Amino acid sequence: MFQRHNRVWLTAAGWKLARAAALAVHAKELARWAENDWPVIVRRSESDIPPNMLCLGLAAPPDPHTGMKTRIPFLVPSEHIVRHDVPLAIISAEKALPAKWQKDFADLVEKVTAIGLEFRVYGSAAMQAITGLSYLTPSSDIDLLFFPQTKDQLLAGSALLTSYAAKLPLDGEIVFPSGSAVAWKEWVQAESHPSQPRVLTKSMFNPRLVRVADLQVELE
Predict the structure, then answer these.
(1) How far is residue 125's CA from residue 141's CA, in Å, rounded to a whole number?
(2) 130 SS3 class
(3) pLDDT the model gives residue 108
(4) Suppose 14 and one of 10, 60, 151, 206 were both cysteines; which one would form an S-S bond, judging by CB atoms 3.0 to 4.6 Å apart?
(5) How far apart are CA 83 and CA 8, in angstroms?
(6) How far is CA 31 from CA 14, 28, 67, in A?
């Protein structure tokens, strides 16, 4: 039911459990999230956790002086989840980006929409759009998730990512129907080099190497 990068909203009791389990230094940040009813993010499941527990994470904005990023991992019983949703739609991140990226990003959104591809945003760009806090810096990436359903969509989406990466700091993953995700740059490289038959995939469980051909079969 849950996938990596999904957004999750917690009950008051869920936030209380998160704060109780977290380091004291993180209590203020967790309280701010709870007060604003901002979502936290689903991360890969840890080993040996009870089946009713969900691994979540909160990434605070980078420190304005040091640039250090604070990531707060925690577990919450699924019964304390009010609702959950897929990652943010690509169009929702446009106005949160720095002005120098907005025109090219708007062009990308227009092409993605015209073709009917599913692109979503996660990471710093998504969190800045959701919270209004300052996540993005000049060295930030724009993290995208691309969900192809057919081989034609995979080709079209990969071509768009490659083309716009020359104009924008694009990063992210291609997510196949099984939920296996591959860094899109690694996928493009593997497709252009048949001698590299396997790619590293991520899912809700441990990363593993998967044959390119096996992932392509999911789109048939």
Answers:
(1) 8
(2) helix
(3) 98
(4) 10
(5) 6
(6) 12, 5, 22
Position 197, amino acid: P
Give the percent of the chain with pLDDT over 70. Answer: 100
Q: Where are the domains of the chain?
A: 7-85, 88-217
What per-residue confidence (pLDDT) applies to 105? 98
Please name which of 126, 35, 55 lies closest in space to residue 86, comparing C-alpha atoms.
126
Binned at pLDDT 50, 70 and 90, residue 1 comes out as: confident
pLDDT at residue 74 in the model: 94
State phi, psi for 216 to the nearest 5 degrees: -65, -35
Both structure tokens of 202: 């991520």
**The token pair that represents 29 in the structure block:** 């940040």
88-89 and 170-175 strand pairing: unpaired
- E-state strands within the chain: 7-10, 40-42, 53-59, 71-77, 81-85, 88-89, 119-122, 142-146, 170-175, 181-183, 198-202, 208-211
